[in-house]
Amino acid sequence: MILEKIKTPGLSHLSYLVGSGGKAAVIDPRRDCEIYVEKARAEGLEITHILETHRNEDFVSGAPVLAEMTGATVFHGPNADGEVVYAQTTREGDRHKIGSLEIAVLETPGHTFDHVAYALFDSDYPEGAVGVFTGDALFIGDVGRTDFYPDRKREVSGLLFDSLRKICGVGDQAIVYPAHGAGSVCGSGMADREFSTIGHERRNNSLLQIEDRAAFIDRKVNENHYQPPYFRLMERLNLVGGEPAPRTARPAPLSLDQLASCGADHLVDVREPLAYASGHLPGSINLPVDMVPAFAGWFIREGETVALIGSAHDQLEEAMEHLVRIALDNVLGGYVGVVPAAAEGTPMRLIPMIDTETVERRLAGDRADWTLLDVRDADERAEESIEGSHHIYVGELNDRWRELDPSRRYTLMCASGMRATIAAGWLESKGVAKVDVYLGSMGAWKAAQEEDRSVEKA
User: Fold this and answer.
1) Contact at 8 Å (CB) between 131 and 177?
2) Measured on CA atoms in the order 193, 198, 204, 207, is the torsion positive or negative?
3) In this structure, are 223 and 284 located in the same domain?
């Protein structure tokens, strides 16, 4: 038996190749799926089964493409929100044989109605399930979100409670193989590690320790989650089947003149926030390359064109790879050379950075034309906030920027300043030009408050 986890950086998506006796199954493949074929061939395996735990919202499934490449059959759970045209339905009690392995289907609705888990059995070790592929129902340290059916939120939360008990029924010895790790938008409390067992989760996962069904439901319906617009695109593509990923993930190189004339809907600067703030091309927005998976789907819509700006071609390639996995791959090209362009006199925009002392002085003074705008998520703000600040989540500025007065000054803040720079760049591109960023943001504020308390004690 072989079992290999394939992690997709950025999305924190986890997919799996499991095989025995010359046959293999892939669980929850990503769109750029050549990796599964390569790994299977290296092990002398033929991919015969492709198993989806549910219709994913945060990435394009590679199942239909992988099926075309290998001739394997795709299986998907019942009760999907539409017909999954590229898959056969698999139900509770079905058992899929892979060499000496059997994969048993468990219907586990809650995160979505079509959600299933797959318990893995090895005939060479008959004492219960070896592991269970839990999809987005059970994570390491967390459980799945239940906010996709707002009119039925108590019902689906209750379904998830029941499904988690069913998953735990495979036995404490079973290894947990979730579809996401820490950093995914599908959960907020996942552990940094990506290994666990059912027994460990039962004893340590705070959501699994809620034994009262009504209390669990109350906990889930009071969670705060955000749904970027691209989720709707993912949901549609994962019913009808997405197109194969582009053959090359490196954008065509553009000169500065070509960048200026390409007509892209978005100029996306993927450099680090401080580099962007120090000097960027007018009209460009900032999505640091490692934050593209989390925020591109808020600001770039289906069909819109993109030109990338970076500090190196490898950086552009990585950014495009992230975009491809969420089907925002209408990339016209990429430009490298902001610093040389500045040295040659090309006009640049700057975003000022300010410190805690400046924020304190502004808060204490006349705020008739100034707002401290907190762009963290609702949970972060509920935990602690700066008195006098206002709140709009960074992603929701995609539309809510229209609520802002372009004649006012805005200082953007988050936990450290990274998301604040994304927000500031977006607002600037929309004509809200009097912006700066609180460098260090909540981290710097807390440090200053702690220092003040230490001085007072002394």
Assistant:
1) yes
2) positive
3) no
Rg (CA), the chain: 24
Pairing between strand 435-438 and 353-354? Answer: parallel
State the residue for tokens 């299933």. 116
Reported as a single tens digit per residue, the pLDDT across 273-303 is 999 999 999 999 999 999 999 999 999 999 9
Domain containing 151 — which CATH number?
Answer: 3.60.15.10
**What tens digit of pLDDT does each residue of 191-247 get?**
989 999 999 999 999 999 999 999 999 999 999 999 999 999 999 999 999 999 887
**Residue span of the structural domain in which 192 resides:** 2-240
Both 206 and 279 in a single domain? no
Is 289 in the same domain as 415? no
What is the amino acid identity at position 341?
Answer: A
The SS3 of residue 455 is helix
Residue 167 three-state SS: helix
Please check whether residue 25 is in contact with residue 47, taking contact to mean a CB–CB distance below 8 angstroms: yes
Determine, yes or no, domain membership for 248.
no
Q: Are residues 11 and 105 in the same domain?
A: yes
pTM, two decimal places: 0.93
Per-residue pLDDT tens over the stretch 94-130: 999 999 999 999 999 999 999 999 999 998 888 899 9
Quickly count: other Cβ atoms within 10 Å of residue 76's Cβ: 24
Measured in residues, the chain has a length of 458
Number of domains composing the chain: 3
